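Probable arabinosyltransferase ARAD1
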Amino acid sequence: MVHRQKIPTQTLGSYISPPSLGSYINPKSEILIHFLESSLPLFIFHSYKNPTSDQRTVDAQRIVFKNKMKDVINKSLACLVVFFLFLCFSLTFTGTVDYKSRFLSFLPQLSNSTFCRTGSPLRVYMYDLPRRFNVGMIDGSLPDETPVRAENFPAWRENNGLRKQHSVEYWMMASLLYNGDEDGDSGSSPEAVRVMDPELADVFFVPFFSSLSVNVHGRNMTDPDTEIDIKLQHEIVEILRGSEHWQRSAGRDHVIPIHHPNAFRIHRDKVNASIFIVADFGRIMSISQLAKDVVAPYVHMVESYLSDNKEDPYESRKTLLFFRGRTVRKEEGLVRVKLKRILGKNEDVIYEEGSASKEGFRASTEGMRSSKFCLNPAGDTPSSCRLFDAIVSHCVPVIVSDKIELPYESEIDYKEFSIFFSVKDALKPDYMLNELKGIPKAKWMKMWSRLRSISHHFEYQYPPKKEDAVNMIWRQVRDKLPAVNLAVHRSRRLKVPDWWRR
């Protein structure tokens, strides 16, 4: 039997204990060094196997072992010296070393998808236009030259009917006039503030009520009053082109609401470099695009469901699918007639013709609040006010529109509270109803809960409140600034504009 010779610990330790090592380390690390001195050689020694049973080869193997040991120890010693030099340097110059935080600093950080924003609000310069371009269409009692201020800003008339749904321009202007003195909870951090010095502005707001002008000055192209609307469009173009602020950026940093499909219809191609506030792109696809423009929600026509606190909202809503409105529409809205033929006679569905009257809105309010799902087919254009009526009624929207674009979609995932069908699938007999019936109660409850938590983002109000509709719109405008600044700066230095497209 071969007897291994026990090598004294202190002898092995002497191989890795040069007198100068202690000068490289912090005194607090001496315990670690003594541990390494005693444990490392023993680990290496006991893992070494003597390959021969011949006693005469033991001495030779011991020599080989010692040579290998010296090589291993020298390399280990070099690593230890470098490590302790680094440790001493870190303690001396950076204080306590948090290696976890140092390591994590090299990793990509996950972003929180919250609505909190840091930094100053968007600075907006608002053109001071004669009243005929905006509030004069609501209240003509003051002279046209009277400046529009918070104290003489007219309240929106609730009897204005369908004019309300495209009144985004009114609420945007009101938010800039609000000075914080009126009663109301406006929140501590508005997304946009008015600046009186144009040199301080991030963007320029043009308070031309182009959507209201369509409704006030003649609804049909053959109506003589439409000439007033056309004249206003022409005048505003002349005002803008004569402005040095417009000339400096070619209008790229200007914000112009054109929410109604026919708003600014004659001359909007002359201002199409600006940031448009739109409902969708149905009739302006040639001059408008998602990259530069902002999709804004309609102003809902039904009352908000503020007391939606039933113990079991799923069971309390007896109707599976609800629709009330005009079924005969143009263009995109042709799908409504086809859906009526498929859904109209189903006992789980209410699909009825409705008018834009006070009684009609009341019936729509009751119908949406008593239904699990609300059908939102396209209107004359891909979007419809009915979607936002459903949201504030906490009725899960069923959207049937192939070309719809949605507000705030960079921040809100509509799949969390809406159901989407292509027109092709929606027109398959029984397909849509079977899909809706197959949605479990738990999933519907989750969508209903999400509707309750986001519905305030679709409220237009004065005074404005934190993260309401108008503040969300201004936030979306702010997100367009990098692209706007790129286009402005690039256009100033290019001798041949857009050379890369040629």
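thats it. Residues 21 and 213 are 87 Å apart (CA to CA). The chain has three domains: 9-99, 122-299+476-490, 313-459. bye
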